[in-house]
Amino acid sequence: MFPAATIIKGVKLTEKEKMGGGGYANVYLGRESYKHVAIKRLHLYEKASDEIKRQTRQSFYRESMLWKHLSHKHVLPFLGVSEDVFPRTVCIILPWMSHGSIRDYIPRCQKEGRLSGSAFGRAVVKWFHQTAQGLAYLHEQKIIHGDLHAGNILIDTDHNARLTDFGVAIIAEANASEGSESIYGALRWQAPELFDPEEFGLPDDSVRSGAASDVYALGLTGIELYTGKIPFPEISDPIMVQRRVIKGVRPNRPVLPDGPISDDIWDLLCWTWAHNASDRPLASQVATELGDIRLSSHTAGLSLHTPQVPEIASEPAAAEAIERIRSPSPTAAFTELMNTTLQSPADRQRFFLKAIKEGENLMKLNPAYFNQAAQIFHKALLAYHNPPELLMIYEGMLQPPVLQLVKNMYQARTQ
């Protein structure tokens, strides 16, 4: 029996035909109360024996309580489970994302002319960053995704990325019948140690998808986002993909309409798919690197017409908006930056890079420096050509108290 908090009653199918599906489940459109929901029916359940169904129910029992309490802006919420839709079948109930997966969304936007030129690169690094943030959160919660690829990244109504289907591969693998083919997620995104544990000094019966293999899949997902193609599209035979991956072969560097992807992105991708799992970064490190890349990629676009930025200290309204916390004496770098006069585009670009670096340094010291960090980040915000856009980037990089101070100052200035 499932925990009462996870059971959803009254879920109804609105379309009998499936709306999509993947390696582990078919997706149907349903309705719960007055809202659309996605109904995921595991393939494992459709033709499983009673014993496999019992084992799967036990796995769902353990996982559903954990999923129910997850909360992150780049992770799709888990609404609950239902046994009403299909007879003797447990289904996962999720919010319905009308934009679908990013695998379908990107080419649709390109066809409509919404991702042309440099807009494509900016959008992809944004979604890649958001995916890494979502994966880092799952890992912090001790959850392994196990089946990461573009088909499991959905786009919400605000056009942001949401991870889904985390843990489904793990449950399916744990409950696969003895002797069945191993399924650690979509094959082309799998890390080499999952193909040949013995080659990496690992026992065959102990290898499961883990944080390191998730990061490997994240890198391959990045390739998919940039190219619009599955990894190794030139190889049709899955066995040949396995052999090449075990030998250390990795995808080629993607080339965009305006040239190859940046060195920063390429170096990061190569890090994620290091041959040995211990040499790969954490998902949180990938998210941090991508956040820095997003910031640096925007500095070249600072407006030629950005007005001179007055000193924060001379703005009474902004100063009143700052939450009063005890602050130590200003650092030399803080004083220099706050006294900097920004007259030319070159001044603004130099200031912006220094301000972001110093703000991050102040945040790392201790909370007493949050006030100074916020003032620097706010001045950088005013120097930026598109403050609302930079505020969105700040969401993923600033500590919550600092972010709130920056928002307070900006709102006070713009009211």
From TrEMBL:
<keyword id="KW-0496">Mitochondrion</keyword>
<dbReference type="GO" id="GO:0005524">
    <property type="term" value="F:ATP binding"/>
</dbReference>
<dbReference type="InterPro" id="IPR000719">
    <property type="entry name" value="Prot_kinase_dom"/>
</dbReference>
<dbReference type="GO" id="GO:0005742">
    <property type="term" value="C:mitochondrial outer membrane translocase complex"/>
</dbReference>
<dbReference type="GO" id="GO:0006886">
    <property type="term" value="P:intracellular protein transport"/>
</dbReference>
<dbReference type="InterPro" id="IPR011009">
    <property type="entry name" value="Kinase-like_dom_sf"/>
</dbReference>
<comment type="similarity">
    <text>Belongs to the Tom20 family.</text>
</comment>
<keyword id="KW-0812">Transmembrane</keyword>
<feature type="domain" description="Protein kinase">
    <location>
        <begin position="13"/>
        <end position="295"/>
    </location>
</feature>
<keyword id="KW-0472">Membrane</keyword>
<dbReference type="InterPro" id="IPR051681">
    <property type="entry name" value="Ser/Thr_Kinases-Pseudokinases"/>
</dbReference>
<protein>
    <recommendedName>
        <fullName>Protein kinase domain-containing protein</fullName>
    </recommendedName>
</protein>
<dbReference type="InterPro" id="IPR002056">
    <property type="entry name" value="MAS20"/>
</dbReference>
<keyword id="KW-1000">Mitochondrion outer membrane</keyword>
<keyword id="KW-1133">Transmembrane helix</keyword>
<dbReference type="Pfam" id="PF00069">
    <property type="entry name" value="Pkinase"/>
</dbReference>
<dbReference type="GO" id="GO:0006605">
    <property type="term" value="P:protein targeting"/>
</dbReference>
<dbReference type="GO" id="GO:0004674">
    <property type="term" value="F:protein serine/threonine kinase activity"/>
</dbReference>
<dbReference type="Pfam" id="PF02064">
    <property type="entry name" value="MAS20"/>
</dbReference>
<dbReference type="InterPro" id="IPR023392">
    <property type="entry name" value="Tom20_dom_sf"/>
</dbReference>
